[in-house]
Amino acid sequence: MELTYLREIIDNIIAMKHQKLCGPEQIQLTDLLIAKDNQLKETLKVAADQAKVNKKMDLLRAEVEKLDQDIQHLQRQLKEAEQILATAIYQAKQKLQSINRSNKRPVPSEDLIKFAHRISASNAVCAPLTWQPGDPRRPYPTEPPASQQNQFAWHPSGEIHMAVGQGSVPMDTRNHTKDNEDVEVMSSDSSSSSSSDSQ
Q1: How large is the angle between the packed helices 23-104 and 2-14, nearest 10 degrees?
Q2: Per-residue pLDDT reduced to its tens digit, 71-103
Q3: Do 158 and 180 touch, CB atoms closer than 8 A?
Q4: 142-163: per-residue pLDDT in tens?
Q5: Calpha distance 66→68 (Å, rounded)
């Protein structure tokens, strides 16, 4: 459309005098050309603004993708933390149940000391007497045998008998006799020294 107006103006200029348009028609064509030029400039300005907006949209789109990746990474970390916390809570509940069971059935410290003495005096820290290679039992006291009642019995002869099946087996404590004597000597020495200090 603008080219048509421009062509008419140019043709009017180069035409012969008798072919030239009159003044008002030329002014009208010039005004139309100026209006179209202004409209074209406005359109180009809008296009430039839209290009800037499109560039901003591209930047925002890239930023959204980056933030989306960060959110997915944080989501994976939260899932891992949730699993770790769930495991910790489960273990804590198990510990609390164990503590509650222990509080309901407290064991006096004297019984623990006696039991420890029985274990050390009867070589119970070693493998069981009937233990053979390939035996699934562990070569040290486990909870079921350690919690059995009357597993060890003292005899007047000074021997310790361990209950095995329907009978009992004497335990050799000769290795611990000297240690026990040393303990008794040390305890007597400490008692005598404490009595002398008090004087």
Answers
A1: 160
A2: 999 999 999 999 999 999 999 999 999 899 888
A3: no
A4: 554 555 544 555 555 555 555 5
A5: 5
pTM over 0.85: no
**Residues of the chain falling short of pLDDT 50:** 16-18, 144, 149-150, 173-199
Q: Given phi > 0 = left and psi -120 to 50 = alpha, else beta, which region is 38?
A: alpha
| Strand ranges across the sheet with 167-171 | 152-154, 160-164, 167-171
Q: In degrees rounded to 5, what are phi and psi of residue 32? A: -65, -40
Q: Where along the chain do its domains lie?
A: 1-120
Token pair in block for residue 136: 């699934």
DSSP secondary structure, 161-189, as one string: EEEETTEEEEEP-GGGHHHHHHHHHHHHH
According to DSSP, the residues that pair with 169 across neighbouring strands are: 162
> Rounded to a whole number, what is the distance in angstroms from the first to the last CA of the chain?
129
Q: How does DSSP classify residue 156?
A: T
